[in-house]
Specification:
Distance between the termini: 93 Å
Helix content: 55-70%
Number of helices: 27
Shape: elongated
Strand order of the largest sheet: 2-10-9-4-6
Largest sheet: 5 strands, mixed
Radius of gyration: 35 Å
Number of strands: 12
Strand content: 5-15%
């Protein structure tokens, strides 16, 4: 305590002399050094003492004082304070004085050293030193690795939480709200905000185009909106919410653990994921803090001042990590640590926009021309966006700054009232996406024609939908009912196709095929959502008793077919994912049982659809007669499985829950098939 008072007293007399004392002191070299604890710095602190008229002063005593340094650990025998080679140095004939700092051990942090004469005019010379422990590089790498891992985990956790809240509504939103380019941009923006990844939106978009649920023209606007939506994460992070990351994590955790409501638990998961994202950013930005004084790092960052090199780094890094969000997170962390400049950051962010195209390209492999065209447009749009901004970084200047840099700084200050680097980087990212959208939005029809010529379709492209029903037929009820029956049979064929592919997914462990089955369920939903309103309109008209009975029959059949599709998508596909994720395999006997039961159900479904198309009910009666036979067989399969469990068959033990659930789901499907048969024979 006494020591601190003495130092403060000395500093008072050194640094707060009246202005008429007559000496000016100027820093020459040694500021912002980076050193290792326990070792002297590589450079001296050098100052020059000048008269009021600017002439060097010889023979003037200059005091060097350590103003502040990190506190020493308590009860640490090897600890030592930093010390100066000399605390009093007389200026030479050119007015120079110098001293060197020997950093203490094992403290790390920031050290401030002041230099002044007894008659200094104005502020003293203050040197800043960043001290780190000997193996700080290793600790830094491990820390950044952990911080980045936490950031990525937060992104994935947040993404999964939002998907649980939104469910399949994201796909439904993309399908239903893309009727016009304006809606498409808004939808792409909204969906990307929800799933926190433009890549996820683009991959989903390519899948929907491949399935015929979106046209290529609709997807073009979605791509533009997704690019804008992807900039929102950087905007949120730039608000320095990372300072409150622990509070956000705690709030999310307690909401998840203490809430009894499912929706509040999912909201808690979302908040927890967001907090982990900010916490990862906080860890990385704190670790990057010393880097802005570290010479080798500064030399590397100077290379990024070449926009070509910066874009290449951003492109390659994003292509490897497969996420522009990761690149943006690291850049924002560097910005919060003041370890990167705006001129260095912008080319890297532009390069990351191009690198993220790899996800769309990979998603389009093996798909139809429409999907490949959507991926090609995504790549073209992202590259064009970078090319549009690039000339304003290297060719056009305003007030000695690249025009884009000047514009970003002006915009950030004028509209957001801040000059923070992280905010400027986020604003640059958003403005680039907006500029790209503004330029290409009016050109969408022209771009559509161009890309359709580059990759022409084999047939006219149109979104998936009903082909048999039309409101014109409503004036002729008998014809309308017949057309509705054809559309229902078509819906049944879609669901039958889903069922036939199930066993192939179990055998091949192909996640892409499982995704294709799930997309087929949307086909069934599209048909159902057209058939039901159509039949309802028909029922509101003047129908004969027999026609009204048939209309009711068809509504019930549609409902049961939809239920079969839901069982496949919501109940059986999760069983497949469970099997694939845990690398489980059925026993040979168990797999044969499932194949046999599946074949029986498929055969019943095929016979049912054949009867619906032909109107011949003989096959329907056979299905009803076989109902008890299939139920008995299903019970027998359960007994066989339990017998294998008692025998200790390892595969049966590992897949027991999947095996039994699958048998139950196939039985449930057959129950719906039988229900349709009863509807056809007995009416409603």
């Amino acid at each position: 305590m006494k020591k601190n008072i003495i130092i403060s007293f000395i500093l008072f007399f050194i640094f707060y002399q009246p202005s008429f004392a007559g000496h000016k002191i100027k820093k020459i070299s040694g500021d912002n050094q980076f050193g290792i604890t326990g070792y002297p710095l590589k450079k001296d602190f050098v100052v020059q003492v000048l008269s009021e008229k600017g002439k060097p002063q010889t023979g003037i005593p200059v005091s060097f004082v350590i103003i502040s340094q990190p506190e020493l650990p308590l009860n640490h025998r090897k600890s030592s304070e930093s010390a100066l080679s000399t605390t009093l140095c007389v200026t030479d004939e050119e007015g120079y004085a110098k001293s060197r700092l020997n950093l203490g051990h094992p403290q790390s942090g920031e050290v401030l050293v002041g230099a002044s004469t007894g008659k200094t005019i104005g502020n003293p010379a203050v040197f800043k030193v960043t001290a780190q422990k000997k193996y700080w590089i290793l600790l830094l790498i491990l820390g950044i690795f952990g911080g980045l891992g936490l950031f990525l985990f937060g992104i994935f956790y947040l993404n999964n939480s939002l998907r649980k809240i939104a469910g399949k509504k994201l796909r439904e939103i993309l399908i239903t709200l893309t009727g016009s380019p304006f809606k498409g941009i808004g939808t792409g923006f909204f969906v990307t905000m929800l799933n926190q990844a433009s890549s996820a939106t683009t991959v989903l978009e390519v899948s929907l185009v491949s399935a015929g649920l979106l046209t290529f023209y609709q997807s073009m606007a979605v791509t533009m909106g997704a690019e804008i939506g992807s900039t929102i994460t950087a905007q949120i992070v730039a608000f320095r919410i990372s300072n409150y990351a622990i509070l956000i994590v705690g709030l999310g955790f307690y909401l998840t653990v203490l809430s009894k409501s499912r929706i509040w638990k999912r909201i808690g998961d979302t908040i927890l994921g967001l907090g982990l994202v900010f916490f990862g950013i906080k860890i990385m930005s704190d670790l990057f803090m010393p880097m802005h004084n570290y010479g080798p790092f500064i030399d590397v960052m100077k290379n990024l001042e070449n926009p070509f090199f910066g874009m290449l780094i951003g492109l390659l890094f994003t292509a490897v990590v497969r996420s522009s969000g990761i690149t943006s997170g690291i850049i924002i962390s560097l910005a919060l640590a003041e370890a990167i400049t705006l001129y260095q950051a912008i080319p890297v962010v532009l390069g990351s926009q191009i690198g993220t195209c790899l996800n769309a390209v990979i998603a389009s492999i093996g798909r139809n021309r429409e999907a490949r065209r959507a991926a090609l447009w995504h790549m073209f749009h992202q590259i064009a966006g970078a090319i549009i901004v690039f000339p304003f970084l290297i060719l056009f200047y305003f007030k000695s700054e690249p025009l884009w840099i000047y514009f970003v700084k002006w915009f950030t200050h004028a509209f957001l009232r801040t000059n923070e680097l992280a905010r400027q980087i986020a604003v640059s990212h958003t403005l680039a996406a907006l500029l790209n959208a503004v330029i290409f939005f009016p050109l969408l029809p022209l771009m559509n024609k161009l890309f359709c010529r580059i990759l022409p379709s084999k047939e006219q492209e149109k979104p998936f939908g009903p082909i048999y029903i039309d409101d014109e037929f409503l004036e002729t009820p008998s014809l309308a009912l017949e057309q509705a029956k054809k559309e229902i049979a078509r819906e049944g064929e879609v669901v039958l196709s889903m069922m036939k592919q199930l066993l192939r997914v179990f055998e091949t462990q192909d996640f892409k095929l499982a995704e294709a089955i799930s997309l087929q369920e949307i086909h069934a939903d599209v048909l159902r959502n057209s058939i039901v309103p159509y039949l309802s309109k028909l029922g509101q008209g003047s129908l004969e008793e027999e026609q009204l009975q048939q209309e009711n029959q068809l509504l019930f059949i549609v409902d049961d077919i939809e239920s079969i599709g839901d069982i496949v998508d919501k109940n059986i596909l999760p069983l497949i994912h469970k099997k694939l994720e845990n690398n489980l395999w059925f026993s040979d006997e168990g797999w044969k049982d499932i194949v046999d039961l599946h074949a029986m159900v498929i055969n019943n479904f095929e016979s049912l659809l054949s009867s619906i198309k032909s109107g011949n009910l003989e096959q329907v009666k056979l299905i009803i007669e076989k109902k008890s036979e299939l139920n008995i067989y299903q019970s027998e399969l359960r007994k066989r499985h339990i017998s294998r469990l008692h025998s200790g068959v390892q595969e049966s033990l590992e897949t027991s829950s999947v095996h039994l659930d699958l048998i139950d789901q196939l039985k449930s499907i057959n129950s719906h098939i039988t229900a349709i048969c009863y509807t056809l024979i007995n009416g409603v």
